[in-house]
Structures are given as C-alpha cells and as structure tokens.
Amino acid sequence: MTPDERLDALREHFEEIVAVHDELATQLEAARERQDELRENVDGLQRENEALKTSSLYIATVEEVGDDEEVVLKQHGNNQEVLTDVSPRLADELEAGDRVAINDSFAVQRVLDDETDARAQAMQVTKKPAVTYADIGGIDQQVREVREAVEDPLSNPGQFEQVGIEPPTGVLLHGPPGTGKTMLAKAVANETDATFIKMAGSELVQKFIGEGARLVRDLFELAEEHEPAIIFIDEIDAIASKRTESKTSGDAEVQRTMMQLLSEMDGFEERGDISIIAATNRFDMLDGAILRPGRFDRLIEVPEPDHEGRTRILEIHTRGMNLAEAVAFDDLAERTEGFSGAELESLCTEAGMFAIREGRTEVRTEDFEAALAKIDREESTGTPVAFY
Ligand code: ATP
C-alpha cells in the first residue's frame, strides 16, 4: 500500500470513528435527558409517598366486629357507618367501642390507645376542689339540702339503712346562670374528700359528636376508679331535653347519650361511693324521664340571691381585697337587685380595677360606685359585663 493509500484509509477510519463518537454522544445526551426525566419522576413519587404516609387520618369508633374479618365503623363528625375489611391481626385485636384511625378508603390504619382518648379532654377531674361552703353566700337553705342529699349518704350511709330509706340517686340543681350551682357541687366534693369529675352536657353534643353515649359510660367508669367521687354534669339540658319532633341524626345522637345516662343511673344501686349532681339553667326544657324516682329525684332550686344573699356574696368576694374603709355592702346590695353571684363577683373585680387605674392599692367606696355605674352603662347599651 502506497503511503497515499494508507493515509486515505486512515482518514476514512478516523471519519468512521468520529461518526461513531457523534452517534454515541447523541445517545449519551438522550440517556442523560431520560435520566433527568426519571429522576424527576422519582422525586415526584417520593413526594407523593411522603404525602400519603403523612396524610391526615379520620377517627372512627368500632361498632361491631363481625366474623370474616369485617368490622362496622362509625366515623366521628358525620356519623357515617361503614362496613370494612381488616387484616386478621387487627380483627383479633379490635373490640366494639375501640377508637381507630382510618384513611380515605376507611381502611383501619391503627388502633388508638387510651391516652389519645377523648375522655381525658371531655372530663375535668379534680382530686379535691378548693371551694368550701364558706365561699358560698346567700343560698344557705340550698347548701343544707345538698349536704343532706349528697354528703350524708357519702359520709354516713348507715343512717339511711337504719331509717330504711334509699338516699337520693341524683341531685338536680336548677336556676339562673352564675348563682353558685357548680360551686355547691365542688364544695360537697371538698367536704367529703371526694374526687370531683365534671362533664359539660353541651360539649358532649357539640365537641364529641358520635361519642356521647360512650363518654357517659366512661364517666361512670372513671368515677368508680376514683371512689368516693362526685359526678357533676353541667348543662344537662343539652343531653336531656324534651324529645323534639324532628328526627335528624343529631337528635338521635342526643337521645342515645341520654339513654346511656339513664341506664347508668338505673344501674346505680350496685355502685359504691358515687354521687351524681347535675345542673341546668333550663329546667323547663328537661325531659320528664330523667326526673323519675331513682334518677334525678332530688330537685334543688338555686335562685338569684336576695338582698341578704347579695350582701353576703359581696362580703365573700371582698374578703381578700384591700379595702380602704368599711364599704356599705348593704346599700350596694340594695342597688344590685337582679345580679347573680357571678355578676357580683365581677362588680368587685371591676371596683379593684378602678383602684388600680387610679394608681391606688386600696379599694374605696367610690370604686364600687364607679364599677356599678360602668356595669349599668354596659347593661343599658347591651355590651356584656366584663369578667376578669
Ligand atoms: P352556670 O349555670 O353559668 O354554670 P353556676 O350556677 O354553676 O353557673 P358557678 O359557676 O357556681 O355558677 O358560679 C360562677 C362564679 O360566680 C363562682 O366562681 C363564684 O365566684 C361566683 N358565685 C356565684 N354564685 C355565688 C354565691 N352564691 N356565692 C359566692 N360566689 C358566687
């Protein structure tokens, strides 16, 4: 081969190599593009995966555990009931009444333990409330009646046996707001060293929808765990109103909650040292069923304080105040007709605020005057009385 021929052959080979190189470069470019595309895909899927893993779950209560690994769940909030399959492991673990977390397709993700339970939030438990009878003014007669109905059976049950009568099962305190009903219940708990367990009827139906009946059951269980105990159900009208004609699911729920309460009270004799007190501002709305013997069979009306009561309440709420002079509570009581205990307490706080505003540490009669004028003004303009 001549040198020229060799050169041509080499040139040809070089061009072939350049062409292959170009080809490979294009392929590499395409592969890189594909790689970027796939990487984006992976990122997207990872994000989706995270979102799926962290997406919110719904809370439901197990209504029934059937054979064949099927359970009936009731979703909280909308009360929707669904039949869903669960894994064999979960099926063994689940019991009716358990609270579970479910996803969008109603698959049970996990069983919630007691700590995440609503019962802790719905009930307020106080070992020994700080209120005593001496803190309550103007309702001596009611204090006496509550002591007879609640304190005596707790502290001296033998007395009832000897006389041969059943102590009252439940005490219902009724009367206008802020007249000391809650205080009364707390004071009995204090006096008898009983645990005070409070539950608000309105919360049961507004906040813990779908759980009312279960929470009522829990309430009594909790009381048994803490004997002696006083169960206090505030705003009982929210769960024990006269039956209405409408048949919405909300009403059915309220009915179930009330039925549970009635059945707990009916099975009450077997219980030990537990007393039950309820309170309402709407006595007229109550369903007669809860007032039958063996249920709330002791009714105590807690009225707005009269002149003497108002004087006493003013004295109580100024006990800890630094008064500059003897304030004429009698005169103040005269001018606060229609005030509840809570409003009188607010009047005293308001008087204290006037003294502070003036840079004084002593409260004078003029501060009470100013507070009264302010409250009168607010009442006439419809602005609510300030509570501190
Ligand atoms: P509601 O029906 O609104 O729940 P209630 O009747 O349970 O009201 P309490 O919660 O007992 O009223 O009272 C609210 C506050 O008002 C008390 O913390 C207390 O300071 C004051 N108060 C009410 N009544 C009296 C009273 N008779 N003696 C002294 N203080 C009172």
Structure described in brief:
With 388 residues, the chain is of the alpha/beta class. The chain is built from 13 helices and eleven strands. The chain has a six-stranded mixed sheet, sandwiched between helices. The chain has a five-stranded antiparallel sheet with strand order 3-2-1-4-5, with no helix packed on it.
What does this structure look like?
This protein is of the alpha/beta class and 388 residues long. It folds into four domains: 1-54; 58-111, Beta Barrel (OB fold (Dihydrolipoamide Acetyltransferase, E2P)), CATH 2.40.50.140; 120-301, P-loop containing nucleotide triphosphate hydrolases (Rossmann fold); 307-381, Helicase, Ruva Protein, domain 3. Helices cover 48% and strands 15% of the residues. It contains 13 helices and eleven strands. It has a six-stranded mixed β-sheet with strand order 6-8-9-10-7-11, with helices on both faces. Strands 3-2-1-4-5 form a five-stranded antiparallel β-sheet, with no helix packed on it. The protein is elongated, with a radius of gyration of 35 Å. The protein starts with a helix and ends in a 7-residue tail after the last helix. The site of adenosine-5'-triphosphate has 19 residues, from helix 6, helix 10 and helix 12.
